[in-house]
Structure formats: C-alpha cells, structure tokens
C-alpha cells in the first residue's frame, strides 16, 4: 500500500506569522499520525522561516511513525541531522528568495560533493533521499551518489495547464519511477500534490510514498486536520 507522509511546515508558517507559540506543528504531527499519516516531514530551512530547531527536537521525541527531515546540503544541517537522527534525510535545493522549493536538486552536476556529503550522513546511520526532477540523468546520479531513495519532483505535473499535458507529465513520472526502481532505488514523490491531481497515481505501486504538505494543511484550516489527512489517505489507497 502506498504511504502518506504529511509535511507540517505550514502549521509553523501560521505560528511564525505572529511569532507566538501556536499553532504548534508538534501537536499537528500527533494529530496527523492519529488520522493515519505514515510519516511526518519538516523542512528546517536556513532562514528558519517556519520550522524551528525546537520543533525538530520535539518531533524527534514524539513522532511515532517516521520523521523525514528535508534540508539543504550544508555543514550546519549535516551537524543537526547527525545529532537529531531523523528516520530519513531528504536533500533539497534551497534559495532564500524562493516561496517554496523550486526545482529538483542538481545531483549530476555536484556528484563528488554529494557523494561525500551522503557518505557523512550514512556514517551517522542516516538514510538519504534526494529530491530530483523526473529525468534519468539526475536519477542515475542519485544512485551514483549513494542515496537509497529518490523523491521525484511533481511540481511541473501539478502545474500542468490541461488534462493532456498532465497525462503526459504523469507518464514521465511513471517512467522515471520505473527507471529508479530498476536501479534499486526506492521512490517517493511530492510537491504540489493535491486532492485532485493525486488521483492519477492511484493503482501505480511504482510510487511507494507521497510527501504532501500545503494541500493538506490548506484543507485542514477549513475542515480540520484529522479529516484532511484521512481524505488524503483514502485517495492514495493507504
Ligand atoms: N517534497 C519536497 C522535497 C518539498 O520541498 C515540499 C515542499 O516543502 C514538498 C514535498 C511538499 O510540497 P507541498 O507543500 O506542495 O505538498
């Protein structure tokens, strides 16, 4: 059965809008788990615009499913990951000026650096996933760099302007997932997935896990987090 990991960054976005202590992403993570989430994701950004160090530490102590830490491949984050020990580290590109992660990681062009960085994470007993565009060049490089997982970037698919375009982009994702699996990589996908565009993924076991944040938290504001998570769990067939 495909799994759902819920990204609670935007619970922290609402909190940081007032720089107070609610809503708490740690409470949100517990509720998401009770509603059926198979994992919790947070992106600790260099600028700490939403998730704070305190959140990560408390989540490590309270998450009962799996904790997936998204982060940039920096020295600071390497130290944090090795200390906190999430169940999975997902390396993503990060720019200060972006609203959200914009593209996949340039793995092929930074192979030596990433091989060394991933080696250091693995020395700390950490499993590593790389967030990549759904193209063979980056997937092959992820394998070469020593990652165990790839997370295929679904942002372009999510932004398709027509059903035909969405179908074509979905088929590219499917081929990429099959290619990654043929190399022995495990496959997740995420970015921009919502209650409508997730439907194409139904019945495709090539995608093991889905990483979804904004759509779930946006719905939760209106219908409650438990219902929002349950509805997504049902859609992905979890
Ligand atoms: N996967 C990665 C690597 C991301 O950076 C993000 C956004 O933080 C997501 C998944 C979730 O995207 P969304 O919030 O659009 O569901």
What binds here, in terms of ligands, is:
pyridoxine-5'-phosphate
CATH superfamily: Aldolase class I
Radius of gyration: 17 Å
The string of secondary-structure elements, in order, is EHHEHEHEHEHEHHEEHH
> What is the rounded distance between the termini?
6 Å
Strand tally, please?
A: 8
Give me the secondary-structure category.
alpha/beta
CATH topology: TIM Barrel
Portion of residues in helices? 40-55%
Oligomer description: single chain
Extract low-pLDDT stretches: none
CATH class: Alpha Beta
Largest sheet: 8 strands, parallel, barrel
Domain tally = 1
At CATH's second level, what is the architecture?
Alpha-Beta Barrel
β-sheet strand percentage: 15-25%
Count of helical stretches: 10
Order the strands across the largest sheet as they lie in space: 1-2-3-4-5-6-7-8
What can you see in these coordinates?
By secondary structure, this protein is α/β, with parallel strands linked by helices. It has a single domain, classed as Alpha-Beta Barrel (TIM Barrel), CATH 3.20.20. It is built from 10 helices and 8 strands. Helix 2 (25-34) runs parallel beside helix 3, helix 5 (111-123) packs across helix 6 (136-145) and helix 9 packs across helix 10. The longest helix is centred in the last third of the chain and has 20 residues, at 163-182. The termini are close together. The protein binds pyridoxine-5'-phosphate. Pyridoxine-5'-phosphate binds next to strand 8 and helix 9.
Quick structural overview:
With 238 residues, this protein is of the alpha/beta class.
Features:
238 residues, alpha/beta, TIM Barrel, 8-stranded parallel β-barrel, 10 helices, 8 strands, 45% helix, globular, binds pyridoxine-5'-phosphate
């Amino acid at each position: 059965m495909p799994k759902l990991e819920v990204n609670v960054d935007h619970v922290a976005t609402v909190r940081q809008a007032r720089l107070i202590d609610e809503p708490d992403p740690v409470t949100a993570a517990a509720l998401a788990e009770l509603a059926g989430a198979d994992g919790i994701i947070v992106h600790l950004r260099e600028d700490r615009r939403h998730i704070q160090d305190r959140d990560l530490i408390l989540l490590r102590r309270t998450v009962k499913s799996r904790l997936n830490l998204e982060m940039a491949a920096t020295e600071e984050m390497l130290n944090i990951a090795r200390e906190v020990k999430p169940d999975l580290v997902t390396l993503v590109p990060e720019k200060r000026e972006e609203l959200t992660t914009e593209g996949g990681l340039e793995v092929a062009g930074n192979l030596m650096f990433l091989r060394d960085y991933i080696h250091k994470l693995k020395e700390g007993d950490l499993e590593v996933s790389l967030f990549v565009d759904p193209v063979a060049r980056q997937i092959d490089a992820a394998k070469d760099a020593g990652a165990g997982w790839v997370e295929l970037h679904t942002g372009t698919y999510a932004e398709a302007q027509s059903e035909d375009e969405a179908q074509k982009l979905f088929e590219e994702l499917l081929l990429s997932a099959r290619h990654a699996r043929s190399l022995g990589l495990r496959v997740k996908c995420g970015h921009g997935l919502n209650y409508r565009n997730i439907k194409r993924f139904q019945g495709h076991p090539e995608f093991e896990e889905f990483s979804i944040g904004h759509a779930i938290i946006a719905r939760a504001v209106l219908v409650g987090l438990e219902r929002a998570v349950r509805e997504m769990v049902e859609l992905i067939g979890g």
